[in-house]
Amino acid sequence: MILPSASPALWLLGLVAAAAYAVPAAVPARWQAPAARPALALAWCSHAAVLAWAMLGAVPRFGFGPALSTTGWLVLTVYAIERQWFPQLQARWALALLGTLAVLLALLFPGQPLPVTASAWLPLHLVLGIACYGLLAAAVIHAALMVRVERQMRRGLEAHSGMPLLTLERLTFRFVAAGFVLLTATLLAGVLFTEALYGRAWRWDHKAVFSVLSWATLAALLLGRWRFGWRGRSAVRMLYVGTLLLLLAYAGSRFVLEVVLGRGT
Asked: pTM of the prediction?
């Protein structure tokens, strides 16, 4: 498949963002604090501009690349906010890698033109879905940190995440609960959007099946957490499964259509 070529100005903006994301990982530790903040601010703004250019330009496009790139941008936003409360939280290498890959995804795979529709539910459906992706991605990252801290504690090692285990656990399930609420709203908006666009309220395609399976998995996790106090690695595995199913519902299917099959519909 031949990818749509981005304009030189858009590529320049994206490369500026990718380079700025790499600064916290590239500079020595003693220079990290004074260099990281302006670099990350520049990267965050440039990344947002790349996404806005692709989705709000003359020919709005969307696909798995912008979806995952926006998810990465949201995760980085959450990280920046959390650093205000937990300055010892260290993830500069992961931050650099995630930010760089997210920017390049949006440039290399800008997606397909959005369908012209009179339905106002499509933008709402997309916004809710991306916000859901971002919250669940943040939950997965916190869950991974929680597992690492728990493993270090069992080995008698000092935890290096900068956040206590119980705080990580509490934040993880708060992100899960918020993501579940948005997923529910996304599915409802999807029903209304499908009815307005295709004349029927629901289509049992692969996206719908994976989305419903993800919703059921996360619902079972939250119910088990509330009713039976589920925690630890079993709960984390359920979170991973639910998030993976949701990833396959849109980003995975769009990757197959856009890259493997070379089709946009």
From this structure: 0.84
Sequential DSSP letters for 45-62: HHHHHHHHHHHHSSS-EE
The neighbour count for residue 33, using CB atoms within 10 Å, is: 11
Burial (CB count <10 Å: 0-12, 13-18, 19+), residue 93: exposed
Q: What span, in angstroms and rounded, lies between the C-alpha atoms of 51 and 107? A: 9
Strand partners for 62: 112
Q: How far is CA 55 from CA 50, 52, 60, 195, in A?
A: 9, 5, 4, 24
Q: Please identify which residue in the block is written with the tokens 């705080």.
A: 167
Q: Would you give the end-to-end CA distance of the chain in angstroms?
A: 14
d(CA 13, CA 52): 12
Residue 59 DSSP label: S
Distance CA 128, CA 2 (A): 30
**What does the pLDDT look like over 216-251, one tens digit per residue?**
999 999 999 999 888 888 899 999 999 999 999 888
Q: Which helix (H) or strand (E) holds 62?
A: strand 61-62
Angle at 140 between CA 137 and CA 145, to 5 degrees: 130
